[in-house]
């Protein structure tokens, strides 16, 4: 009976060792190789985030702006700020915070991007950073969080843990669980 439980414990131990060492090592290497962000990633949900990113892009015009599921006014906000359309990438594939990262990470890897600004609201940053650590970090992409002041609310730790779990599932299986949400809505 003792040996029956040893293999799963050994597998779990190896998984924990890899997870604890692998992602932080990849993040450290990416940070060393690309100390300055190369792209601005805006997590959709608020035009305040887009306005903030537009001001940042005016200060750093070499950066491409990736808008992941942005607000309906996003294009107008950037046009009014004088950001050229050639500097913008609109990505409407994401349906939530986890997929903001999982849908864009392969694009970043393909382009050799190793460091990303992550722009989101201050109340949302803990969850976004936790997800970014797993999704971007596992792919060797560092990130610098930039918070936008907004609503004075706080996300529950349960929500953070849920999305960390979904990110780990994505890391292992390539699936985020977002399709389950759509199925439950159609029933």
From TrEMBL:
InterPro entries: Cell_Envelope_Assoc, DUF218, Rossmann-like_a/b/a_fold. Gene3D superfamilies: HUPs. Transmembrane segments: none annotated. Residues 39-148 form the DUF218 domain. GO terms for cellular component: plasma membrane. Coiled coil: none annotated. This is YdcF family protein. It comes from Myxacorys almedinensis A.
């Amino acid at each position: 009976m003792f040996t029956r439980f040893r293999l799963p414990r050994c597998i779990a131990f190896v998984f924990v060792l890899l997870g604890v060492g692998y992602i932080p090592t990849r993040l450290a290497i990416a940070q060393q190789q690309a100390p300055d962000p190369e792209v601005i990633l805006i997590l959709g949900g608020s035009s305040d985030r887009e306005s903030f990113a537009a001001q940042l892009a005016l200060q750093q015009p070499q950066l491409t702006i990736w808008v992941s599921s942005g607000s309906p006014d996003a294009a107008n906000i950037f046009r009014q700020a004088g950001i050229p359309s050639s500097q913008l990438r609109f990505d409407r594939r994401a349906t939530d915070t986890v997929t903001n990262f999982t849908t864009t990470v392969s694009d970043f890897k393909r382009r050799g991007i190793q460091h990303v600004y992550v722009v989101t609201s201050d109340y949302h940053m803990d969850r976004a950073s936790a997800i970014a650590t797993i999704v971007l970090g596992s792919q060797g992409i560092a990130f610098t969080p930039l918070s936008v002041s907004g609503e004075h609310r706080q996300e529950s730790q349960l929500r953070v843990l849920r999305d960390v779990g979904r990110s780990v599932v994505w890391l292992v299986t390539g699936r985020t669980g977002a399709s389950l949400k759509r199925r439950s809505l159609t029933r």
